[in-house]
């Protein structure tokens, strides 16, 4: 039944009962007697309550739909309001669900384009840092060394100092380039890349434990890149925000044949901190390969980032 008829019939039912009561046992004198006024007042209150209750029941699906619209998040896809009843309400919910399907598909396509553009831009910058600035600094380093070999003290000492500074900059540039373009991922695969990440994030105050499960199936190229970037952001967040002394990085097979990545630290926990560009970026990447991403409190405190993909060979 349409919403229009449902509301009309609800109101009509209440009004008909009121009229039947007036035609039947209720009499109204002029001026109204106190007892009659009390009966009419009680009748009115009963009608209003009945109307309110019936309207609430009639409009409940609309409220459910409003709630679903308010909480819909394209970065957490899959949640849909249940289609109940028939007529306009069911049609509205079905249309809303179809709209969410379309928006989620479009979002996945557009974030795929953005992310691949971002990756190729990172690769280009890394290449330029390596080829241009890296080569120039290497040449400067050699020139300083050459000059230092021929110079007398104290200039020689100063030149050695300059040499160390340039060498440190060169290392820094190589490190930035490596982060921008995970060459080790392209050349040696995800396992080696995760090992390199674990080493990179290990400091005297933070122990990184890497566990790679046995019998891991091969992953598609895009899937590997997504796993790498999520691990990188998870470890960066641990190092920056958690105050943890230990973080575990697990890559393992899932019972249904999928593959999961887990970054779990023993830090202060994420609490109710709002999601920033880092976590949103992880969600966008997870969407790209149809993976589930959850970021939340860990089993024994701390923070846990889980990325589970059911079709690891897709997106080659
Ligand atoms: N492992 C963690 N432990 C504690 N808090 C965390 C952890 N990871 C994230 N957070 C909290 O969640 C917030 C959002 O993280 P997110 O990575 O989205 O943004 P960000 O790290 O602040 O900035 P960026 O865009 O550079 O990543 C952080 O500011 C931090 O408060
Ligand atoms: Mg971050």
From TrEMBL:
Entry-linked InterPro entries: HAMP_dom, HATPase_C_sf, Sensor_HK_TwoCompSys, Sig_transdc_His_kin_sub3_dim/P
GO cellular component, one term: membrane
Domain HAMP: 56-108
Keywords: ATP-binding, Kinase, Membrane, Nucleotide-binding, Phosphoprotein, Transferase, Transmembrane, Transmembrane helix, Two-component regulatory system
Residue spans crossing the bilayer: 7-26, 38-59
Main subcellular location: membrane
Subcellular location(s) per record: Membrane
Class of this enzyme: transferase
Top-level taxon of origin: Bacteria
Catalytic activity: ATP + protein L-histidine = ADP + protein N-phospho-L-histidine
GO molecular function, one term: protein dimerization activity
EC id: 2.7.13.3
One Pfam entry name: HAMP
Name recorded for this polypeptide: histidine kinase
Species, as recorded: Streptomyces wuyuanensis
